[in-house]
Amino acid sequence: MKTVNTCFKITYTSEQYDRAREYVEDMKRHPERVYWIGNKGKSDEELILSHIANRILSGFYNQYNSWMSQNHIISMTNRNFN
Fold first, then answer.
1. Does position 70 have pLDDT exceeding 70, yes or no?
2. How high is the pLDDT of residue 8?
3. Residue 42: how many CB atoms within 10 A of its CB?
4. Is 66 exposed, middle or buried, given 0-12, 13-18 or 19+ CB atoms closer than 10 A?
5. pLDDT band at 61 (very low <50, low <70, confident <90, very high)
6. Fewer Cβ atoms within 10 A, N terminus or C terminus of the chain?
7. Residue 67: is its pLDDT beyond 70?
8. E strand or H helix at 29, and its extent?
9. DSSP output for 52-74
10. What does the alpha-carbon distance between residue 55 and residue 19 come to, in Å, rounded to a whole number?
11. Cβ–Cβ contacts within 10 Å for residue 48, how many?
């Protein structure tokens, strides 16, 4: 199996940021959730930005929504990881 390292540059709104911040705050109240596997030790800002990126990219991937691509994904670079 081949691996690629991909870097996305995305834009987000203040509303998206606020929703992600609320989500992270909610997750803090539930320290036993699966969410924390791989997220322990990250700063709030890292968690918030990761959540925004995950929502944007998964929405684009799952819905093939070209609007999201045109309005949120500014650039993407790829290189082989192996």
1. no
2. 82
3. 14
4. exposed
5. low
6. N
7. no
8. none
9. HHHHHHHHHHHH--HHHHHHHEE
10. 11
11. 22
CA distance 51 to 17: 9
User: Which structure tokens are listed for 19?
Assistant: 């929703």
Q: Could you give the CA distance from residue 13 to residue 76 in angstroms, rounded to a whole number?
A: 19
pLDDT digits (tens, 9 = 90+) for 1-54: 777 888 888 889 999 999 999 999 999 999 999 999 999 999 999 999 999 988
56 vs 14, more confident: 14
| Cα angle, residue 13 at apex, residues 7 and 18 outer, rounded to 5° | 105
Evaluated on CA atoms 35, 41, 44, 45, the torsion sign reads negative
Q: Which two tokens stand for residue 67?
A: 């609007």
Amino acid identity of 46? E
**Which residues fall within 8 angstroms of residue 57, CB to CB, at 6 or more apart?**
8, 10, 73
Domain ranges of the chain: 4-80
